[in-house]
Amino acid sequence: MTEKLHIVGGGMAGSEAAWQAAEMGVEVVLHEMRPTVGTFAHRTGHLAEMVCSNSFRSDDDAENAVGQLHWEMRAAQGLVMTTADRHRLPAGGALAVDRDPFAEEVTARLKSHPKVTVEESEITELPEEGRWIFATGPLTSPALGEAIARATGADQLAFFDAIAPIVYAESIDMGTAWRQSRYDKGETEEERTAYINCPMTKDQYEAFIDALLAADKTEFHEGETADYFDGCLPIEVMAERGRETLRHGPMKPVGLTNPHKPDEKPHAVVQLRRDNALGTLYNIVGFQTKMKYGAQTSVFRMIPGLEEARFARLGGIHRNTFLNSPTLLDDQLRLRARPNIRFAGQITGVEGYVESAAMGLLAGRLAAAEILGRPLPTAPADSAMGALVHHITGGAEAKTFQPMNVNFGLFRPVEGLKGGRKGRRERYRAYTDRAKAAWRAWLAGAALDAA
Ligand SMILES: Cc1cc2nc3c(=O)[nH]c(=O)nc-3n(C[C@H](O)[C@H](O)[C@H](O)COP(=O)(O)OP(=O)(O)OC[C@H]3O[C@@H](n4cnc5c(N)ncnc54)[C@H](O)[C@@H]3O)c2cc1C
Q: What positions does the entry give for FAD binding (predicted)?
């Protein structure tokens, strides 16, 4: 008899992980605390409940990264994606889902699977023995959160995200912006030029503050406490405290010289810092915000150098339990210090229903393969699944790690293609063609191993 796989959390990730492992022939015990213990966002006792919007976002697998991830999950007979397809609602190019029948069907299929046992229980410790996947999501129960923090170190587990917007490097106007670290600090040329700086005149700064103050903001959900304030104030809250606050905080202009206008001292400077090893993404330093998405795009494009900026993700602050995965997890999603334990879903620092289910799919297959004695390599870097797992377990900067959704900035560039807005469609198609080939090969390899 093979070892059982225990999965904690029957959300998007845990449900998918359980399905994948069970389909590979492994006995699975799925521990879900609802409905006995609830969260402020879940309403039902169903597995795979969609807590807020009913959208899996774009279904375009040719020119959209999340659409490509849909494709990969369908190719792997993912439970979440194939069930979503059966409960699809009209939504243009997006995959919108009729949430209750969707969750009911996921629950029924798992409960009736001969290899799956669903136990209604809250797990509050990281066990020393056995093989486990923790997929307890952004609202991991407090007792388990404390146990994880004890095992990983309190500074390696966050309870709120504070997401600054992330910009595609190629969309920054380097005729206005320049590369320089404050006071040219750093041992190497790479470190001395680690930041991209966008200068503002006094008039531009005042107009920017006006726009920040006037912008529409989102509120916290009911029950989502606002004790995030230490050290991660939203920029609009800083601006509300005084018009000069940002100029003395993240927008201070000191230690920087604009090579395009060396005789002109900027009144304020917005800095962007590299967000991934590939150097394709930059985050706007200290610009976490609760502004609505539409407002963010127009306000941030007021920054000189970012007029044409394209955003890989916009900013936000949410209740969100997540690990510092680049430090803690290997590319198999195992805790480096305790390899009998894997993590999956949003707690690994991915963001969104689809990305969470994708990490569940991968963790379920990798754990089951290990139990069956024929371990699998992790997802290939050129697939969307692989781009995401490599980002969270290594490509992302550990010091500033914040949750990420899948986007083309995580993909290795395809050689010989035009950069910029004009070449975009061709580039995206090249990424998704390459991703499909890589994912097909990985699935075929996994199937051969099983034969
Ligand atoms: C308020 C809110 C709104 C959101 N809105 C959206 C949105 O509109 N679109 C989107 O794509 N994403 C949204 N998200 C993120 C979304 O929740 C995740 O992307 C997705 O559900 C994560 O999947 P998961 O499996 O990692 O976690 P979940 O789907 O949350 O599943 C985790 C499961 O673990 C269970 N659990 C927790 N602790 C324990 C324990 N100790 N023992 C046993 N079981 C436990 C929970 O009950 C839950 O069922 C939102 C999140 C929140 C908090």
A: 9-14
Residue 270 sits at the vertex; the CA angle it makes with 268 and 274, to the nearest 5 degrees, is 155
The highest-level CATH class for domain 166-314 is mainly beta
What is the full DSSP assignment across 56-106? EEE--TTT-HHHHHHHHHHHTT-HHHHHHHHTEE--TTEEEE-HHHHHHHH
The H-or-E segment that residue 167 falls in is strand 166-168
Element counts in the chain: helices (H) and strands (E) = 13, 17
Question: Could you tell me the residue ranges of all domains in the chain?
Answer: 5-159+321-450, 166-314
Q: How many CA atoms lie within 13 A of 450 on its CB side?
A: 16
CATH superfamily of 5-159+321-450: FAD/NAD(P)-binding domain (3.50.50.60)
Count of CB atoms within 10 A of residue 362's CB? 30
Nearest-angstrom CA–CA distance, 385 and 361: 9
Q: How far is the CA of 176 from the centre of ligand 1 (A)?
A: 41
What does the block give as tokens for 393?
Answer: 């377990």
Mean pLDDT by 10 residues, the chain (451 residues): 92 98 98 95 95 92 97 98 94 89 97 98 96 97 96 90 91 97 88 93 98 91 59 85 94 96 96 88 92 96 97 90 96 97 98 97 98 96 97 90 93 83 88 98 84 63
Binding site for FAD: what residues are annotated?
Answer: 9-14
